[in-house]
# Entry
Amino acid sequence: MIVTLEDVRHIARLARLAYDEEGLLAMQGEMESLLSHFSSISALDTSQIPPTTSVLPLANVLREDTPHLGLSHEEALANAPEQEGGFFRIRTFLEERGNEETK
Amino acid sequence: MINPLLMQPAHRVLPLLQAGEISSAELVRATLNWIAEIDPHLGSFLFVAEARAMAHAQYIDKARQRGEEVGPLAGLPIAIKDNMCQRDTPTTCGSRILEDFRSPYDATVVRKLEEAGAVILGKCNMDEFAMGSSTENSAFQQTRNPWDLERVPGGSSGGSAAAAAAGEAYFSLGSDTGGSIRQPASFCGVPGMKPTYGRVSRYGLVAFASSLDQIGAFARNIPDLALAMQTISGHDPLDSTSLPEAAPDCLAALQLDSPRQRASGMLRVGVASDQLALEGLSPAVRRTFEEAIAKLAGLGFSLEEITLPHASYGLPTYYLIAPAECSANLARFDSIRYGLREEGRDLFDQYCQTRRQGFGAEVRRRIMVGTYALSAGYREAFYLKAQKVRTLIRQDFAKAFQRVDLIALPTTPTVAFRFGERTEDPLSMYMADLFTIPISLAGLPALSLPIGWASPEEGGPPMPVGMQLIGPAMAETLVLQAAYRYEESSGLHDLIPSCVAADPPHA
# Structure
């Protein structure tokens, strides 16, 4: 089981977590150790075994489409770090050097 | 000094409240006074809603005086874990990222408790986002074990366990994803129950791993635990993973099962010999467990040897599935809609800086492992593989339950450990959930109950040991019945921890 520093950098980007170089190195060691341990399950033959996504005997849970009150505008915005005119306020990103997610 | 009423069982105190021999305001005041005295040493609570609890108690007293219907738990002071929303109060999940968050609505369990008349005293400490086994991952404070203040209470619901054990609440709610109720229950010498997945609504519970999370409870005896469980159980249309089943009448089930009734010899209990052979089970805990098994036989239960051949793969399976789900659930902390915001160079950097500052080390570690397990190229080998092994573990239990009614397992491999003992090595911390995780993966109901004491391997005074009783899906009442029968014969209920018995309490 080898986790490279590039892997860790890539995963940190996907997870939206900032790490400095030292942090990345430490995380590389931890992930390598944990994932090596967890890969013990690869020894099991599961070729004929379906995955469990849920233990429930339920499928397609639907409800009546009846109107009901939800949170008010004020309640929904009450915990926002920044708001303006009834909207969540975020910083401008279109003028910046491109949304890196799309790269 | 504690008011002795606070260590009495809820089922004895409720009739006093109903008869007007004590008012709810007096009882809640006494509890708040005790919390003010003991909690600086224990650290169970992150937030005590003193004014709100007193106002609620006075409201109930007045309603009762007017002869109004006040609910079966009216006036009883209880506590909840800080990952359940109660309108207009903080819900931090033990995390900096939610430090200033106030719940805009009530969780379904909160609504049910308040409809029953319970007075919620406040929110209990926990490992951040319920990730941990010692409550040391709380961003705010340590919680200490009421039996030895130098030791951890377990986790992640450590605050709730300590609060119930030390008489700071008649019962408390916790949540259990891989053992977060049963393990601290075992460490703190109280019974604690995780129900069947889907039994209790998760609406208003902050999500960690959605296919595993379940709300349950701690109390100091089985009848009180049954009372708590039946109050919070039942179908909820607001949670699409809620089972369409009414709450079971757990208390009635206990009456039916009084020692004079029902042939206890009918129940078959499976003992998994392969699990007891697992490396990491301390000899002292194993001895205490084997004595408890012998006691079960003495009570008329018939013992059957079973095996759970894939249960030992539970740990790696869980620590791939739960982090994968957590990495998806915690993606919602985006610094925009609620929670902490740390400025960055641009919006992308703002996400990354916020999440680095707002999440603690263990939460970041799990997000990283989970993201890895879900990422292109690794998903099949890790996440999908773990989901398949989860099926094998479920099949083990299904097979065993063809032969037995219940399964008994130790709750934890060791007794409560010391602060800092396992924080440096994540795997050693994960090991604390060795025996609770397989049951969570199978979604089964399980209860941990006190069975005695064992000395820590490194020495020191004996600490509580718990045993899990596990049932097939939806068999909560059967599990409670068996636990009650054991409790009645063992006398191990309403235990008074050393920090409560000592005067002054912190001695």
Observations:
- The mean pLDDT of chain A is 90.
- Residues 1-42 of chain A form a domain with the Histone, subunit A fold (CATH 1.10.20.60).
